[in-house]
Amino acid sequence: MQEKVLMKGNEAIAEAAILAGCRHYFGYPITPQTEVAAYMAKKMPKIGGTFLQAESEIAAINMVYGVASTGKLSMTSSSSPGISLKCEGISYLAGADLPALIVNVQRGGPGLGGIQPSQSDYFLATRGPGHGDFHVLVLAPASVQEMADLTGLAFKLARKYRMPAMLLADGTMGQMMEPVCLPDPAEAEEKAPDWAAVGTGCARVHNIINSLELSPAVLEQKNIERYERYAIAEKEEPRWEEFMMEDAEICVVSYGITARVSRNAIVEARKKGIKVGMIRPITLWPFPKAPLLKAADQVKSFLCVELNMGQMTEDVELAIRCKKPVGLCSRVGGMIPTPAEVLAKIEKANEEGG
Amino acid sequence: MNAKRLTLFAGHYGSGKTNIALNYARALHETGHTVTIADLDIVNPYFRTKDSEEALRKEGIELICSEYANSNLDVPAMPKEIYGLIEGRDRMGVLDIGGDDRGALALGRYVPEILKENDYDMRFVVSFTRPLTRTAQEAVEVMGEILEACKLPFTGIVNNTNLGPDTTAEDVLRSVKKAKELSELTGLPVRMTCAEKSLCPQLKGIENLFPLSIQRLYYMMNSEVPNG
Prior knowledge:
heterodimer; A: 354 residues; alpha/beta; Rossmann fold; five-stranded mixed sheet; B: alpha/beta; globular; disordered C terminus
């Protein structure tokens, strides 16, 4: 751990990526994530890395594909409309089983939407952002410290499962400043992974990085094998945090910035004697189904708090097998609910019971 | 307060310019001056002086900021009223400049007029806990970039070293040496050392100590619960 510094969330992502060993960043500016690119532009040339502002988001994601093919860590970052553009490339990364990091500092949509914070890319991120059968790992930080920590973790998991990973933050997380302890630099990898296209040295058969498969039977098998890997990730990698759940009768489910607002509301509700707690998913894919299913036997109801029209409620209903009602407290378009608004919904849920 | 007619706060982004500009404008206002605070930030999309608009209005401090601040429109527009403040010469002005050279670029168009009047104080705000200004030498680099962008020479340094809500008196005390070093490197005086009000009793020995009131948005708060 290094000495504590004060950072913007976007800067913390950039610095943590560098510390994780990433030396290749490709991007295109868009509010509210531009500081990631700005930081990389300043820092990468000084450490022998590559910062490249591509001509478009599509170009940037394909440059990521190129570097990832050599087994090196590479990343891009953008905000919602830019992520839509990158989806084709993300699908190609998934089809070629390449690890890479895509940062999405979400803003309001659909379309050009606005520049204020949002979580409305939940579906896009968790259902596989692009065409074809695939998933990406999705991590949702709720503090500047987690912006740094989960960036490192995202690279690690992407490597482990040969999958693209998405850090799904929102504009507030990107722009807010908090003290953060950065990790120590990761040790440099000496050897490229076995699958990387780094030259055979005439000592082995070629590694081919490609998502095109001419034989339908082989393509089917590749899809099946990919989903076997996903099944392992779904078993091993869900991460979440529980807050005041021991005796909770209402379970708030929230991630990112809204989890912070919810914490404020839960503390207030507890003062009023309402038994409420929170399960905060840290990974959105794989989704922490087990703790939610367990909570379903304990609580009267669930309340999702998010900055979209209720996208996560579907995952909660699936996770708890519709055993209990799932309510929603949300603001959209760049608005953020106040703790008072969340508290009012908690109180209503408490009156309604199961 | 022996203040010039215009006080400008520029520096690396995230060094605390907006908070300091707000506190400084209030301090001027309390000593009986008619004060206007102008937000010249064309970089930052969130957390702007506009957040304090209503409070300032109630206190009787005029705020000039882009009509697009805090909106969903990403347009780096400057409000026309800034010309009135700079050329009118009828009231005190506190100018909050956007971060880094990119932010300071927008100041350039007003600089000839500011130099002509020559009643200004251009202060460089620095926090040595920011990753790209950890040392005096790095701060000098940022100063050079800002000067290159706006062409208005600095006249003083504001040391605002902090770790947000985690700041201790020690953090501020430790930063004094670096601020001095920056002062020696640039030949500019340290005009303010900022610290949140509650820390100030522990920092009495510091010259030009400037107490800050900081308003944090609810979602900026950690909301850790004591004893679970």
